[in-house]
């Protein structure tokens, strides 16, 4: 059964040039999900990373852009894809182009072969969510990782959220530099803090809206569910202040806090309060237990639950299914959870890209998926010579 309320979005072509271990690659795809199998180091995750660059940010590895280019090479790279969505076919492209001084510092974005102003333009055509082994420590790791997960999820409801987060961080760095001066310009500090307050409240409000919506998109409610419901809560000064207060009042309060904390922040060398200090707390809802206290298996199930919620919410709000990237997902699940995951992806109706070293774990999917073998930067249909 597929999700009849959302239109299926899927890639029909994927082309790489100078990307990681791929000198050139051209794949023809169809509506089906894609399974990529092969030995470790063959380039399976590199293909998922290439797809992830069809969204804002630095991809699923959060790599520096110059690290993505094939070596040896000239430092440039490109990812191009044809996408089918509610509007029909759309050509998307991104990469690092060359200028006379070498690779550019910012990646280019092209939509239907025309330059776009920013990577946020990609969100008008496709939403991409992912789960990688590096995310397994989300619940026990630093708060910064959870904030990044949260802020990517918020893009499903607010395309401008990423720009606001970046603008806040730029303004905060400017404030920190000013505070490091012997006699900082107070008027300039006030102007920066005013900008920070406006951005901070918008960031916190968007996060709260996402958390409220996500609470209604559970996966499984029972303690024996393959992927139990994850409870989400936000911890942060601004998120709490928005309870029962108007946004303008919260802006004034935060601006006053920044002004009062100048000496403290100058001594610390950084800004100690704001949305960059907030945290996303997750609970295993059926057990009513914090995620960080759950077993490794329960944490993995909760993480998958969160990603499925993220995908369902994106589909509900945009009317189009997201593309879902799942790196090395099946090998760490028992057969029951593996089959439950495949069924849920089918219900969502999305095009998923899944990687693994063992073709057998995907055997139950049969012809429902396009199975590709990856080896040393070459891709072929499974079974083909």
Structure description:
Helix 3 packs antiparallel against helix 4 and helix 8 (296-318) packs parallel to helix 9 (335-348). The strands form 4 sheets. The protein has a 6-stranded antiparallel sheet with strand order 2-1-4-5-8-9, with helices on one face. A 6-stranded mixed sheet has the order 10-14-15-3-16-17, with helices on both faces. The longest helix has 29 residues, at 186-214. Helix 9 links the parallel strand 14 (323-326) and strand 15 (351-356). It contains 9 helices and 17 strands. The protein has helices spanning 44-52, 143-154, 161-179, 186-214, 237-241, 247-260, 262-268, 296-318, 335-348, and strands spanning 10-19, 22-28, 33-37, 77-85, 88-96, 98-99, 102-103, 108-111, 114-115, 128-131, 230-235, 279-284, 289-290, 323-326, 351-356, 369-375, 378-381. The chain has 2 domains: 1-127 and 320-385, 3-Layer(aba) Sandwich (Rossmann fold), CATH 3.40.50.300; 138-319, RecF/RecN/SMC, N-terminal domain (Glutathione S-transferase Yfyf (Class Pi), Chain A, domain 2), CATH 1.20.1050. Helices cover 34% and strands 23% of the residues. The protein is of the alpha+beta class. The radius of gyration is 22 Å and the shape is globular.
């Amino acid at each position: 059964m597929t999700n009849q309320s959302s239109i299926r979005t899927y890639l029909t072509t994927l082309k790489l040039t100078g990307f990681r271990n791929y000198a050139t690659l051209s794949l023809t795809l169809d509506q089906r999900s894609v399974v990529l199998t092969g030995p470790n180091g063959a380039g399976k995750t590199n293909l998922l990373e290439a797809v992830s660059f069809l969204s804002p940010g630095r991809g699923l590895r959060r790599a520096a852009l110059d690290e993505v280019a094939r070596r040896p090479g000239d430092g440039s790279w490109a990812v191009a894809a044809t996408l089918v969505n509610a509007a029909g076919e759309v050509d998307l492209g991104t990469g690092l182009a060359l200028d006379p001084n070498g690779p550019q510092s910012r990646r280019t974005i092209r939509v239907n072969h025309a330059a776009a102003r920013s990577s946020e333009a990609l969100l008008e055509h496709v939403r991409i969510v992912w789960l990688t082994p590096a995310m397994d420590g989300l619940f026990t790791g630093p708060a910064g990782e959870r904030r990044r997960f949260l802020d990517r999820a918020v893009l499903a409801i607010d395309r401008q959220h990423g720009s606001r987060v970046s603008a806040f961080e730029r303004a905060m760095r400017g404030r920190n530099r000013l505070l490091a001066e012997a006699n900082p310009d107070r008027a300039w500090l006030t102007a920066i803090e005013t900008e920070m307050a406006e951005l901070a409240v918008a960031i916190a409000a968007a996060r709260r809206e996402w958390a409220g919506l996500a609470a209604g998109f559970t996966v499984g409610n029972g303690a024996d569910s393959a992927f139990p419901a994850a409870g989400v809560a936000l911890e942060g000064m601004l998120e709490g202040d928005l309870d029962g207060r108007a946004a303008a009042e919260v802006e004034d309060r935060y601006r006053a806090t920044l002004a009062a904390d100048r000496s403290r922040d100058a001594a610390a060398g950084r800004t100690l309060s704001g949305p960059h200090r907030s945290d996303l707390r997750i609970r295993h809802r059926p057990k009513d237990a914090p995620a960080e206290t759950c077993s490794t298996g329960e944490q993995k199930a909760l993480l998958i639950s969160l990603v499925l919620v993220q995908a369902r919410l994106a589909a509900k709000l945009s009317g189009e299914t997201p593309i879902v990237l799942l790196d090395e997902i099946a090998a760490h699940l028992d057969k029951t959870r593996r089959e439950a995951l495949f069924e849920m992806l089918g219900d969502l109706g999305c095009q998923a890209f899944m990687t693994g070293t063992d073709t057998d774990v995907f055997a139950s999917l049969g012809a429902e998926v396009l199975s590709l073998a990856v080896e040393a930067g070459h891709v072929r249909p499974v079974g083909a010579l």
